[in-house]
Amino acid sequence: MVGLVDCNNFYVSCHRSFDPSLEGKPVIVLSNNDGCVVARSNQAKELGITMGKPLFQIEDVIKAHQVKIFSSTYPLYGDMSARVMGILGRFVEEVEIYSIDEAFLNLAGYDRVYPDRVALAQQIRSTVAQWTRIPVSVGIAPTKTLAKVANWYAKRELMHNGVLELTDPSAIQAALEEFAVEELWGVGHRYAGLLKRNGIKTAWQLSQVHDVWIQKHMTVNGLRLAYELRGTPCRQLELEPAKKKSICTAPSFGRLVPDLATIKEALATHVARAAEKLRRQHSTAGVMTVFLHTNRFKDKEKQYYNSRTVELPHPTASTSELLHYAGAALESIYQEGYEFQKVGVILSDFTPENHRQPGLYSGSLDERLVKLSGVMDKLNTRHGRDKVRLAAQGFCPTWQMKQQWLSPCYTTRWKDILVVK
DNA sequence: TCTGGGGTCCTAGGACCC
DNA sequence: TCTGGGGTCCTAGGACCC
């Protein structure tokens, strides 16, 4: 038996947690660069504001209904997420943190401790609400996919009071017969189109389709989905967070940028960020890709996209070393005469840092560079991002992303901590 | 004017091996 | 008429997730 705990409108709820005046009002959170809507309160959803909508297309609605806007601020969300996940770990031993706002719970073997799973889920909800003010919904079922379905109903139908358990076959069938196939976990817009063209509209219908057809058209992943709908688990709980196999850092510029010098500064910062992520998981990278492109939405302007992939002489996690190759790669693909929107770096082909083979002629230098990066990480963890950085990153960046509607840093900056009067 | 960022997995086909 | 059998590795493209 699996439980899925999902935070409702998570980013919006994080802001509401520290500002109760937002309760009951339409609130949205924007993507990086304040571009698109990535989270909405229920009141904003009721106004017809859809997920992924560009902000400039809904300015009328926003003005008319005084929708409150926030730029996204991941330190806050990450912090609140950790608090919620910590609470879940007090109730059950095995918690899979699936995303920033979702976790699967292994409820197998708890029949004696928690004979009433719905009551347990309600207790989880009220504890999370009291300690973090984040509202959550819980779905309970024999497989992860069915728990996702249960959660969907728990979140949307008030009568469930935030918790739905789907265990007996007739209840599962009834739920699946009402469940649109495109809402399923593992069905995106391409598969949804394919299924509809073949007359498959509900999750129940998909569960009844012949295995051979499903595997042929939706690969083995589709087959796993069908099995899970029939109550046979194919997706195990993953308790150890897997190490990443690639790391990409590529935020857009806050404005279009034509000149190489500015792009180089931005790239240096992206490389520093990517290398930090790499060191945090104790890996070194053997391959680096640098890419650069213009704004694809400006179809009247000349477009340019290019990338360069470099095999590094030996795997490394040193920012300065990666930066050396990144700069050369960028110079080889940069073209004058374009307005660029983004430069990015992708690290891949990882080796664990303790298996690392140093360069034949540069062994001790490698060691020193690795140590240097480690020291910088420690200083920056303690004193703030980029407090110590490479000069290549520049001193007053002009390319940074837009964040016009930042909230205070309630949990990560001393002067922003709320004062209780 | 204005349109996000960061990931994973699977498959088919080609190149190569003995 | 008729041309084997069994593998591995790599890549590009396509699907999905939050």
TrEMBL record:
Domain UmuC: 2-188
Taxonomic placement: Bacteria, Pseudomonadati, Bacteroidota, Cytophagia, Cytophagales
Family per record: Belongs to the DNA polymerase type-Y family.
The entry's keywords: DNA damage, DNA repair, SOS mutagenesis, SOS response
Protein name, per record: Y-family DNA polymerase
Origin: domain of life: Bacteria
Keyword Hydrolase among record annotations: no
PROSITE patterns: UMUC (PS50173)
